[in-house]
Amino acid sequence: xxxxxxxxxxxxxxxxxxxxxxxxxxxxxxxxxxxxxxxxxxxxxxxxxxxxxxxxxxxxxxxxxxxxxxxxxxxxxxxxxxxxxxxxxxxxxxxxxxxxxxxxxxxxxxxxxxxxxxxxxxxxxxxxxxxxxxxxxxxxxxxxxxxxxxxxxxxxxxxxxxxxx
Length: 165
Hints:
Elements: E1 4-11, E2 15-17, H1 27-37, E3 41-45, H2 46-51, E4 61-65, E5 77-80, H3 83-92, E6 97-101, H4 103-109, E7 115-121, E8 129-130, E9 139-147, E10 157-164
């Protein structure tokens, strides 16, 4: 059965983006993101797609959720106009659907999510896109791994998995 997984990184104050970009450098989080999404169906919004420079993530089925059915997307991206279509494509491929942003797509997908994978950066960062605080009442949490700031990671961090109860 296809699982719906949401993955993101955020600062203590909930920041996930600034000026259309991720405002930090966390090599450990990027490696985790790649390992988690590789050979899966990823769902993103148009702004997230644009933040990749119009280049699809390799070895993944790249879906873009858009309300503009006539919008032309760069090669390597498939357009979907609702969450059900994205889920159906993942089910047909017998792969998990991994929601990778942005905020509007996260908000839409949250009620369908089976699992959340969240990297918490141990700092506060000013930004223009933030996630709301997670109400953990309906989630079972588990620490996956943690690390310190170093030459590859701007900030100390911890990666948590939340599974719906």
